[in-house]
Write the structure tokens for this entry.
Amino acid sequence: MTMETSLHQPATRAEAFKAVHMCDDLVSQMVPYCQRKLATFEGDQQATVKAAFKGLLAKRWCSDAQCVWIMRRVVRELQWPVGDSALEI
């Protein structure tokens, strides 16, 4: 999945850059957040990701599609075997 296919089409190049930067920033914050929260969910990576995803959606900082993209990147960076069911809206 690429940024172009998973996010809404920004109107300008500057908006596209801003959206990518925001998503990258959120990924960099969500990786350590998920690592910290893992103990809360007794080592259950799927439950940790699902809870973090729900929290990210609730913030409304970005679109639902962007939240999915962010959390897929988080899961990939963490190298956790988490299924797509954790990222269902």
